[in-house]
Specification:
mainly alpha, 2 domains, two-stranded antiparallel ribbon
Length: about 190
């Protein structure tokens, strides 16, 4: 390193150490810009505008999280032919149904066994057809994966919607904000 670069690094480090100590923060009350000069704090109106803009963007991100989770549920339901929305509740209620009339929702959506037709050349050179039963091992795994995904998405939707309501209460109600601050100060 050249002497000029070393000097700037040392000055920058010393200013950073002074500003990061509590006494330095209280004494200067500003931030360090690129020229290693201390800038004054932002004016109140600009600071409030930045805070409001950041709050709106953050709230928009939380709303988009809910949109993504609900979109995942919708598109998975569309992919599975309209059976995903009630898949988890049907699986939960399956053991309580009448054994003679019940149909397993997991095997209805993901069949485990199917009829397979094999065609092969016979001894005379003609094509022979054999019908057999085939086990679809992948569907045995798929039904477990999709039941997990259903519960996971329902839990995420519930938590995200609850958190969004909580955030709206904090934003819209000054009484809730005041009580929340009282709890935080007391702890």
């Amino acid at each position: 390193m050249s002497d000029g670069v070393k000097g700037k690094v040392c000055v920058g480090a010393s200013v950073a150490v002074r500003l990061l100590t509590p006494a330095g923060l209280c004494q200067h009350g500003g931030t360090v810009d690129e020229d290693v000069t201390i800038s004054p704090p932002l004016p109140t109106r600009r600071r409030e505008a930045l805070t409001t803009t950041s709050l709106r963007r953050f709230f928009l991100c939380e709303v988009l999280c809910l949109v993504v989770v609900v979109g995942n549920i919708y598109f998975t339901d569309l992919f599975l032919g309209g059976t995903f929305l009630t898949y988890g509740t049907e699986v939960i209620s399956f053991p309580d149904m009448d054994p003679e009339k019940r149909v397993d929702p997991m095997t209805r959506i993901f069949p485990r066994v199917t009829k397979c037709t094999f065609r092969k050349f016979g001894s005379s050179g003609t094509i022979e057809t054999h019908d057999t039963m085939c086990v679809l091992a992948v569907n045995i795994i798929n039904e477990k994966i999709f039941i997990f995904i259903w519960f996971w998405l329902v839990i995420l939707t519930t938590i995200t919607a609850g958190w969004l309501v909580y955030r709206l209460l904090i934003i819209l109600s000054s009484d809730v904000r005041f009580r929340l601050l009282q709890v935080c100060v007391c702890v």
